[in-house]
Write a structure and sequence with these properties.
By secondary structure, this protein is mostly helical. The protein is about 70% helix and about 0% strand. The longest helix has 19 residues. The chain is globular and about 60 Å long.
Length: about 230
């Protein structure tokens, strides 16, 4: 695990240099001292959740930093269309859209990666009527394991795990990597627990071919027209 954290630190350093930012400039943007950031970049201090959250807010690719993988994510026409839906109709429309996305993924990505499979299952769980709790709770339910087993897999005690699942405490970078390694849940979903539906729709949308996208948009447009009748 330490080797993987060192890989994260290397990507962090390279990302900062790519943006042509000094440690002093970045630490000022993060609201910490240059000395504090230097300790993070050297691995003397594990990067806390709040710092990663701030980097993400500055436009940094958190999924790449933590996992070393590049995932396509661009704003989708589908999400733009869903903004037109009235609040009382959102769950029903999202349910249909989720089904359409699943069919699209099955056609375009028969060998779906574990990351996108995880996202698809989270989205399905959120529209099933159970309602969002926390992404960590959802991926545990998807894995069909008890809290004690998930805590053991992540290397934390059960008391801390329960707090993590209830969002009473938040994971640092090392624990985020543990979560990703065990569940293949992208770190950005943990950071954006309350709006993961939109993030997942954009992620899945970018894996679907344009002809299938157009069919989904046409069907969604027809649903929205029907609701306005």
């Amino acid at each position: 695990m330490r080797k993987r954290y060192e890989d994260f630190l290397r990507r962090l350093n390279q990302y900062r240099l790519y943006l042509n930012m000094t440690q002093d400039e970045l630490s000022n943007a993060l609201g910490i001292t240059q000395s504090q950031f230097s300790k993070i970049e050297l691995g003397k201090t594990v990067m806390p959740y709040r710092t990663l959250e701030l980097l993400e807010g500055m436009g940094w690719d958190i999924d790449y930093l933590v996992t070393g993988k590049n995932f396509d994510r661009n704003a989708s026409k589908l999400n733009e269309m869903l903004k037109q839906v009235e609040e009382e109709d959102k769950r029903e429309v999202l349910n249909v859209v989720t089904w359409l996305l699943k069919q699209g993924m099955n056609k375009c990505c028969p060998n779906m990666s574990p990351e996108y499979k995880c996202e698809m299952e989270i989205l399905q769980m959120r529209v099933s009527g159970e309602g969002p709790r926390s992404v960590l709770y959802e991926v545990r339910k998807i894995s069909d394991v008890a809290q004690a087993i998930m805590a053991e897999k992540l290397g934390v005690n059960i008391k801390k795990y329960r707090k993590l699942e209830k969002k009473e405490v938040y994971p640092d970078v090392e624990l985020l990597f543990h979560i990703y390694e065990v569940t293949r849940c992208k770190p950005s979903l943990i950071l954006h627990n309350d709006c993961v539906e939109s993030i997942i729709i954009d992620d899945l949308w970018n894996q679907i071919t344009e002809p299938v996208q157009n069919k989904i948009l046409t069907l969604t447009e027809q649903i929205l027209w029907f609701l306005k009748m």
